[in-house]
Structure formats: structure tokens, C-alpha cells
Automatic annotation (TrEMBL):
The lineage of its organism: Eukaryota, Fungi, Dikarya, Ascomycota, Pezizomycotina. Residues 378-446 are annotated as: Disordered. GO terms for molecular function: glycosyltransferase activity. Residues 437-446 have a biased composition (Basic residues). SUPFAM superfamilies: Nucleotide-diphospho-sugar transferases (SSF53448). It comes from the Eukaryota. This is Nucleotide-diphospho-sugar transferase. InterPro entries: Glyco_trans_8, GNT1/Glycosyltrans_8, Nucleotide-diphossugar_trans. It comes from Paraphaeosphaeria minitans. Residues 378-389 have a biased composition (Basic and acidic residues). Pfam families: Glyco_transf_8. Gene3D superfamilies: Spore Coat Polysaccharide Biosynthesis Protein SpsA, Chain A. Transmembrane segments: none annotated.
Length: 446
């Protein structure tokens, strides 16, 4: 971990620091993490970004790039071990959903972060690495109202934003309950509204874990990781969106909603125009295909085109604008190696494709098509039923699949590319999470 001195970050809760954290397990997300660090340092310069990373699946040059960026952005490198599912019993094969999300369980390592540079972390906010900061998110996250909530329930609580279940893209795998009327964000009248967490309909009680904040403590760490260890691996493998589904189960009744601005999914710009305001976005979440995977194109009519359906030209353009500013700054600072490494993981100006970019680009959406032919639930579970620990609830089943045509990921039973000290190493790049998936229902309220 870096020992670089950090400025105080205006923390009024206790004597420690406020901090953000993200996770990087694949070089294909390097550009996203660099731009997250760069933009956060511009808008919240005294608040460190703790970059959790897994040395065994990150290249030395990618880690070196992070270290170089930390000289300019208020970032701290924090190596962690992968958190992998233990081997299951007979017949407990690893499905393609687990293959796709094999790294996402490592996100739970953020609950192990208790200090940074020798100072206690009083408040910690996790941000996915496919996010970028447009204005200071701290007032919406680190404030007395949230402090009061997080201190209750034996301090085993989170603050986050709701998931979106509008499903205006018509994804065939989505349950019938995924409709605009059942989406919490539909009922927010304007940019200042914050929907309440409700038990009915169930979709209004579910959070998106792209952004979540908490008060770090040994007790909270044990609460989360003990639940992970005590849940049978085959039940965890059934989760369609693992870390999100799991955290929703563990923290059911234990989370409070915060402003959409700190986890603004790019689709909301056209899915929730009544709520959205370009100038109010604090943290933009680039779900599905990532902006660094492809350059922006323009139609003869002048419309910017990006994203797998072509609707994200404006928001992807914002990312490329920031990347251009970052690139110019680092070029002026003589950071030749940093720029050369990053160039490997962003789309070429000539539009040439690469495996890394296909893995986080429009091809990521092809994964969802594997669900269109119906679901398969094994181990005697009832159709539509999922289990996490001692809790059951509705979700979609998981079907087995052939090797992925986009990334080349192998079928079940052929997923390992060598054994590392902390579990199997997957050499193929993983593509990004969708970011607003269905969750299991849990019974750990409090």
C-alpha cells in the first residue's frame, strides 16, 4: 500500500478520513479506473480513492500505470487477494454466470478496508470502475443524515441507490415485474427526489451496488464475509448478478436510498428524463458496454452514436472528452509509459478491434441473449426460487451455455487457465456487469 501523505479531507465524523474505493481485477478496465481517479481528484481533491486490485490477474505494466496516476490523482493502491467461491460438491458445476462474474465477489474485500495510510477510514464509499465523476458526490454521501442512519442497526447498514427495472430495452431474461411502474425512479418527480425503500413491490426494496457507502468496522466486515462463507457455494453460483444479489440479501431492510446523482446509469438520460439533468450528475455509471471500448461515430445528421443500441453517443462522448484532457495533461508531464500502457486498453482512433475491447464493448450485451431460451433450475429448487444462506426468494433460473462467442470463455468445467496462490486464474478478460440486475430476497433486516 502507498505511504504517500494525504491531505485531510474535511471529515467531520470522528477523527479519521472519508474515502472512496474501487476494484480493478482486469487490465481491460484500466482506462476506466484511471479516469475515475482523475475526475474524482478534480471534484473531491482531498478525498482519497483506494484502488483495490488483484496482483495475480493484473499485468505489471497496468499496476505501474496505476502507481504513476497516483502521483497526480489522490489515489492509494491496495492489493487484495481474489475472493473466490470454494469448490462445491458432486454435481456442483460452475455455470457461465459464475464464469462471467468470477471476479465480482472480490468486491466484498472493500469491507476489509479499515484504514488508509495509517489513518482510520470513518466513512467509505465504493464506486465501480466503470464510473466517472462530473461533480463532487461527497455532500450526497458523507453527511449527517446518512451518518445517523448508518449508526443504527448495530452499524450494519448501507446507503445506496435503487436498481432500475424499467427494462425498456425489452431484455427477454427480465422477469415480468420489470416494468416502469415498478421502478422506484419512475416515481421521482424531479432531479431532487429520492425514492423511499419499500417492501412492495419488491423491486422498490432493491439497491444497485455500483455505489454504496458504509461506516467500516470489524463487526460489519464479519457480518458480510461470514454470510458469504456460510452460504453454500452452489447457492451463490445461482445468482445472476452475484455481488449485487448477495448484498441485497444480506442488507435487506438495512439500507437507505440516496440521490440518483451518485450512481446515474447512462440509460437514465433517456429512460428517466423527468428525473435526469445533465448538470446534476455527480457520478455517471457506464453500464453494459464501456465508452473506452469504441470511438464515437456521427451520423450524416450530426447525431453522436455509441453503445450497443447507438443511444449513448452523448454520455460516451463525455468520457472521451475527459480522456482527451487527461491524455494531454499526462503527455505534458512526460508520462510516456503510462500513456503507452493505457493505449493498449482503449479503442484505436482508426476503429481497429481487439479482444480486450470486444470483452467490454457492445459484445457484452450478447451475454444476455443466452437467457432468452428459458431458465433451468437444478438441485430440486422450485422454478423461480433462489437461496442465499437461510433465505429464499424469487429470481430467474440459470441455464448452462456453450463457450462464449464474444470472449471465448470456456464452458463449465473448462474455466481454469492455471492455478494461482489464491485460486484459479482466468486469462480471458471478463466483460462488464450490466449494473441493474434482479436480486434475491433476504431475511437479514434490522
Amino acid at each position: 500500500m502507498s505511504t504517500q501523505e494525504r491531505d485531510s479531507n474535511e471529515n467531520t465524523h470522528g477523527n479519521g478520513v472519508n474515502a472512496y474505493a474501487t476494484l480493478l481485477t482486469r487490465p481491460s478496465y484500466l482506462a476506466g479506473a484511471l479516469l475515475l481517479a482523475y475526475t474524482l481528484s478534480h471534484h473531491s481533491p482531498n478525498t482519497p480513492l483506494i484502488i483495490l486490485y488483484t496482483p495475480e490477474t493484473m499485468t505489471d505494466t497496468a499496476v505501474a500505470a496505476l502507481r504513476t496516476e497516483a502521483k497526480y490523482s489522490n489515489a492509494v493502491l491496495y492489493p487484495v487477494e481474489h475472493l473466490r467461491l470454494p469448490a462445491g460438491g458432486k454435481g456442483d458445476e460452475e455455470g457461465m454466470v459464475a464464469e462471467r462474474f468470477i471476479d465480482t465477489w472480490t468486491k466484498l474485500r472493500v469491507f476489509e478496508v479499515l484504514e488508509v495510510d495509517g489513518r482510520k477510514v470513518e466513512r467509505l464509499c465504493f464506486l465501480d470502475a466503470d464510473m466517472m465523476v462530473f461533480s463532487n458526490p461527497s455532500p450526497f454521501i458523507f453527511n449527517p443524515d446518512n451518518d445517523a442512519y448508518l449508526a443504527g442497526g448495530h452499524a450494519k447498514r448501507l446507503v445506496a441507490t435503487h436498481i432500475c427495472v424499467c427494462n425498456l430495452d425489452g431484455d427477454a431474461w427480465a422477469p415480468a415485474s420489470w416494468t416502469p411502474n415498478n421502478c422506484a425512479h419512475t416515481h421521482v418527480g424531479d432531479k431532487n427526489g429520492v425514492p423511499a425503500v419499500k417492501s412492495e413491490p419488491p423491486t422498490m426494496g432493491d439497491m444497485n451496488t455500483g455505489t454504496f457507502a458504509f461506516h467500516p468496522s470489524p463487526a460489519l466486515r464479519s457480518f458480510v464475509l461470514d454470510a458469504f462463507r456460510e452460504t453454500p457455494p452452489r447457492d451463490l453460483r445461482r445468482l445472476k448478478f452475484p455481488d449485487q444479489d448477495f448484498l441485497n440479501s444480506v442488507f435487506q431492510g438495512r439500507w437507505k436510498s440516496v440521490s440518483w446523482r451518485v450512481n446515474a446509469l447512462k440509460t437514465w438520460r433517456y429512460w428517466h428524463p423527468a428525473m435526469w439533468d445533465d448538470n446534476s450528475v455527480a457520478v455517471l455509471h457506464y453500464i453494459v458496454d464501456k465508452p473506452w471500448a469504441a470511438r464515437i461515430t456521427t451520423t450524416p445528421e450530426g447525431k453522436k452514436v455509441a453503445g450497443y443500441k447507438g443511444d449513448d453517443g452523448e454520455t460516451h462522448g463525455w468520457w472521451w472528452d475527459a480522456f482527451g484532457r487527461w491524455e494531454a495533461e499526462r503527455k505534458g508531464q512526460g508520462e510516456v509509459d503510462l500513456l503507452a500502457t493505457t493505449a493498449k486498453y482503449v479503442a484505436n482512433e482508426d476503429g481497429a478491434d481487439s479482444e480486450e475491447m470486444r470483452a467490454v464493448g457492445g459484445g457484452a450485451q450478447a451475454f444476455a441473449k443466452k437467457w432468452e431460451s428459458g431458465a433451468k433450475v437444478d438441485d430440486g429448487a422450485k422454478e423461480g426460487e433462489k437461496i442465499v444462506g437461510d433465505v429464499k426468494g424469487g429470481s430467474e433460473g440459470i441455464s448452462q451455455a456453450k463457450p462464449d462467442e464474444v470472449t471465448g470463455n470456456p464452458p463449465p468445467g473448462q474455466s481454469d487457465f492455471g492455478q494461482g496462490p489464491h485460486g484459479p486464474i482466468l486469462r480471458k478478460p471478463m466483460f462488464g456487469e450490466r449494473g441493474h440486475g434482479r436480486v434475491v430476497r433476504g431475511g437479514r433486516g434490522g
